[in-house]
Amino acid sequence: MKKLSVKLGILFFVIIFGLMTFVFFFLHEGIAESRVDEELSALQARGNSHRAILEKQFDDETIDHVVLMESESTTDVVVTNKNGAVLDSSTQATPFMKYLQVPSSPIPKEGKILEGNWAEEPFIATISPIHIDGEVTGFVYMFQNTSSVHSLIEGLNQHFILAGWLSVFLTIIIIFFVSKGITKPLIKMKEATSQISKGNFSVSLPKTSKDELGDLAKSIELLANDLNYLKHERSEFLSSISHELRTPLTYIKGYADIVYKRNLAHEEKEKYLKIIVEETNRLSELIKDLFELAKIDQNTFVIHKELIDLSNFFTNIEQKLSPAFQEKKMNFEQQSSPSICLNADPWRLEQIILNLLDNSMKYSQEGANIKLRAYKVKNSIHIKVQDNGKGIPEKDIPFIFNRFYRVDKSRTRSLGGTGLGLAIVQELVHAHGAEISVKSRENIGTEFELIFRG
Ligand SMILES: Nc1ncnc2c1ncn2[C@@H]1O[C@H](COP(=O)(O)OP(=O)(O)OP(=O)(O)O)[C@@H](O)[C@H]1O
Ligand SMILES: [Mg+2]
């Protein structure tokens, strides 16, 4: 496995090394060039000053004097007449012969560089013309051995090589720490995720940085908390299911045994059989609800939306439920502003409203008023189910949409509730992209509101 830190390190190094080579190359070229230029202009200046002396007095004695001055220095001088014949030189003039021809074109007064190619030629050279009474009388040639320039450049190269190695060394050290610094939190996060996959959700990551890595660390912790919550919820859900299944089964088994083993009177037998039938119904309802939730969880259920005229829809619901309301001696009222059309799945919407009305019926007393209303606010359609029943205690309100949550377990059981109704309602409402909220006060009543935004 190639480590990220190594990959990052190599990448940084290649980039920095490339840039450094580029910069060093140009710096080196620049410095070398200006050094050589300095040497050439010094040589030219020296030649020009000899020329100035010779222009004042162009005789053997002055030429000797000029030549004598150069004989002790690292540069050499050759003085010729205007035809190129050597008058005198500070050293053997033979090596300089190829430069000593009479120039074909006029030389400017301030002289010119004859040879600047220090890298390949043995000398650099300049020429300065001697003007007397406006006539060219001779030339002063200056020569400097390029070995001195070479040693100058060599010294420069050595400095550059040293600086280069130092930079490479420092770069490697810096890259080492930087790439470690970047990959260290990543390694920690990788360890945390493998802990999570092993089921240990109590991971904590340092949240020092406020960048993308810090955000990632926060997300991983959030994920661990969510997974922890889901794990708890799942085990609670499973224990609730087994409890809910066990209770009716215990009843069924107990009463079936009695009916089977004992010689009972006809009415008694019927009483027990009725309980068995009721409990069986409860079981099949429960399994139906669970199946429904499982379908929603797996996203395998589909919503077929169509335009529903709410006023017709409510009338249908009223017809369906009026026998039940009459039996319980409750008043039901439905009302929808005319021509409200809602884009929803009619079968699912009915399921939602029936569940809410079923709750209102179950958790209200005789004579209660139950209302179903729909109205429009701007582009949203609001549907409200309201009752003046026993209400929900404030502390329970945040949990009533949880699976198997019932406010009063023993009493609701006698009413046949399993605590799955609102969980299913909420999922169905969300599947429509709508919202559900509840307002309730104990002994005053409850109101569920659905909002379908347009
Ligand atoms: N209109 C209401 N008035 C008072 N309490 C309510 C009302 N609606 C719901 N509740 C409370 O919320 C709990 C959860 O309701 P939910 O519909 O999920 O379950 P349930 O009615 O007990 O069972 P199920 O609907 O699965 O048969 C109920 O047990 C009840 O305590
Ligand atoms: Mg219910």
Describe the structure.
This protein has 454 residues and is an alpha+beta fold. The chain has 3 domains: 4-152, PAS domain (Beta-Lactamase), CATH 3.30.450.20; 212-290, Helix Hairpins (Orthogonal Bundle), CATH 1.10.287; 306-452, Histidine kinase-like ATPase, C-terminal domain (Heat Shock Protein 90, 2-Layer Sandwich), CATH 3.30.565.10. 56% of the residues lie in helices and 18% in strands. The protein contains 9 helices and 12 strands. It has a 5-stranded antiparallel beta sheet with strand order 2-1-5-4-3. A 5-stranded mixed beta sheet has the order 7-9-10-12-11. A two-stranded antiparallel sheet has the order 6-8. Helix 1 runs antiparallel to helix 3. The protein is rod-shaped. The two termini are 53 Å apart. The chain binds adenosine-5'-triphosphate and magnesium ion. Magnesium ion is lined by residues 355, 358-359, 417, 421.
Main attributes of the structure:
454 residues; Beta-Lactamase; Helix Hairpins; 5-stranded antiparallel sheet; 56% helix; binds adenosine-5'-triphosphate; binds magnesium ion
Task: Write a brief structural summary.
The chain is an alpha+beta fold and 454 residues long.
Structural class by secondary-structure content: alpha+beta
Largest sheet: 5 strands, antiparallel
Shape: rod-shaped
End-to-end C-alpha gap: 53 Å
Query: What is the CATH class designation of the largest domain?
Result: Alpha Beta
Find the count of extended strands (DSSP E, 2+ residues).
Answer: 12
